[in-house]
Amino acid sequence: QVQLVESGGGSVQAGGSLRLSCAVSGFTYSIYCMGWFRQAPGKEREGVAAIDSSGTTSYADSAKGRFTISQDNAKNTLYLQMNSLKPEDTAMYYCAADPSTYRYGGGRRYSWYEVPRYKYWGQGTQVTVSS
Length: 131
Hints:
With about 130 residues, the chain is mainly β. It contains no helices and 13 strands. The strands form three sheets. Strands 2, 4, 5, 6, 9, 12 and 13 form a seven-stranded mixed sheet that branches. The chain has a four-stranded antiparallel sheet with strand order 1-3-8-7, with no helix packed on it. Strands 10-11 form a two-stranded antiparallel sheet. Strand 10 and strand 11 form a beta hairpin. It is globular. The mean pLDDT is about 95.
């Protein structure tokens, strides 16, 4: 089992920055990839960024150039540095992790930005950006 605990959310004005953290415990050695997702009220959960065990990163178009995902393996912590925040970034942010190189469903392979790609989820941390 893997446990994920997010922190670092808060309220910030547009243009500001926040750094989210995700503390990972349990069978940390088993993790292949990790990601950050967000969910705004009334909207579906969407992938923001992901990183795999080789350090390869992926970003949603909305995050490119503003957000950076990174991990500190010594501290078992995943980060999301968010700069130039916009009101539309307001959402609950979730950390996710999966031990599998690939995960399949419905006859196809899930992509990094899809919710079913990940087995483990944190409880979320709220980010609110005011204009």
